[in-house]
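INFO batch 0412 | record 1 of 1 | parsing
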Amino acid sequence: MTTSLTTPPPDEAKTPMLRTLPGVPRWAKWAAHAAPLTVLPSGLWRLALGFGIPVGFTGSMGELYAAPGWITLYVTVLSLFVEGLALLTLGLVQPWGEVVPRWVPLLGGRRIPTMAAVVPAVLGAIGVLWFCLTFVREWFQPDRDYPAHEDPSGLYAWWFGLSYAPMLAWGPLLLAVTIHYYRRRRTQR
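INFO prediction complete | emitting tokens
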């Protein structure tokens, strides 16, 4: 099937806001798509915790997470919120990160100022890096608010670690895509 240079391929014509922008290198596209995947395992782990699936906590922590309750709502909202934030990385390589989608009231169709995307993305990347590094440091620190013997151990500790380890890549991926976004938008002017 042939298409002209002015007519987008059929799949892009149906979802123009979901395609990758021209000038975005493959590495940036992959990095932007990888960012939401880095938080998915931890979100699934939290959901398991919230729905009463044993994740290895004992003592008072084990009692807190033993059965579904308020913690279920909390971890569900937290997991969806974090995944939503990670999905915003896609806006740095797709059209909706440069032009507000037409369906948005009052702002639809307006160009997004470069710094309106760059500043929150850089602050987000720094915040995620700080959180992840603090979390790793706290996890290995012996004097915490609750006894270490209540933490997951054995296979549960491995499950916990493998669920949160990918999140360490979220900050660097977001920062790399943000720098590319800034440079690409700056050269477009």
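INFO post-check: Residues 1-9 have pLDDT under 50 and may be disordered.
INFO record closed
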